[in-house]
Design a protein that fits this description.
6 strands, alpha/beta, 57% helix, single chain
C-alpha cells in the first residue's frame, strides 16, 4: 500500500511499483485515517509519506498500525530528515526511511528489506544523521543563537553585565574602559537587539536563552 498526503505522488509511486511486478492494494491520500486504511487492508508493506518527519505526533499512525497489525512493515517516505526525524520513525515502529527523491530502485530495495524484517534505511542517511548528532548546528528558529551571533565578544560581555544590573560606571570599571566607551557599547547592544532599554535587553536575553549561551561561551 502507498499512503501519502499528496494523491498524485501516491498514485505515481503505485503505478511505478505495479510496472515492476508488485501488487499494490491501494494508493491513497488520507491526511487522517491512514492507520485505519492500512489496518483494514493489512498489506505486507505500507509506504507512508510525510512532509514533516520531526513534527511531534507525526508517526502516531505507525504506532497504531504496529499495535493492531504488527506483521505490516511500514516504510516512511519523507524529506531529508533530521536525526530526530529518523529516530522518531524507528521509535514508532517503522521498518525503514526512504527519501522522497529516491529512485524507484531504492524504494523497491527498501520494500524488499522491510518485507524480510531488515531495517531499510540508506547508509548515507544514517551517516548524515550521525554527523549531525555529533556536530549539532544551531536550528534556524533558534533566536538566542541568532542574536548572539550579531554581537561582538565585547558586546556579549556588556550584555551579561547589563543583565547583572551593572550601571555604566561599573561596566566601565569591570572592563577597564572609559565610561563613554561603555555607554557606546550599551547603545550598540540595545540597537542590535532591537530594544529600547537595558531592562528590555536583559529580559530578551533571558527569554531567548541568549544569556545562558553568552555565559557558556565565556562572554
Amino acid at each position: 500500500m502507498v499512503v501519502d498526503d499528496h494523491r498524485l505522488l501516491a498514485e505515481a509511486l503505485a503505478s511505478a511499483l505495479k510496472l515492476r511486478g508488485h501488487r499494490v492494494l491501494a494508493a491513497a491520500a488520507p491526511p487522517a485515517g491512514a492507520a485505519d486504511l492500512v489496518i483494514s487492508r493489512a498489506p505486507e508493506v505500507c509506504l507512508l509519506g510525510t512532509a514533516t518527519p520531526a513534527e511531534p505526533g507525526i508517526f502516531d499512525p505507525v504506532v497504531r498500525i504496529k499495535r493492531d497489525r504488527p506483521q505490516v512493515a511500514v516504510v516512511v517516505l519523507g524529506p531529508v530528515p533530521s536525526p530526530r526525524g529518523i529516530a522518531a520513525a524507528f521509535a514508532a515502529g517503522a521498518s525503514g526511511y526512504v527519501r522522497h527523491d529516491e529512485r524507484i530502485e531504492g524504494v523497491e530495495r527498501a520494500i524488499m528489506k522491510a518485507r524480510a524484517g531488515e531495517a531499510a534505511v540508506a547508509p548515507a542517511l544514517l551517516q548524515g544523521a550521525f554527523a549531525e548528532l555529533l556536530n549539532p548546528v544551531a536550528q534556524p528558529d533558534d533566536e538566542g543563537q541568532r542574536l548572539l551571533q550579531m554581537l561582538t565578544p565585547r558586546e556579549v560581555e556588556v550584555l551579561v553585565r547589563v543583565a547583572d544590573g551593572e550601571d555604566t560606571r561599573l561596566i566601565a570599571a569591570g572592563m577597564g574602559i572609559a565610561p563613554s566607551t561603555a555607554r557606546t557599547h550599551v547603545q550598540r547592544v540595545l540597537m542590535k537587539l532591537g530594544v529600547g532599554s537595558r531592562l528590555e535587553a536583559a529580559a530578551l536575553a533571558a527569554r531567548t536563552g541568549l544569556l545562558d549561551r553568552a555565559v557558556a561561551s565565556g562572554g
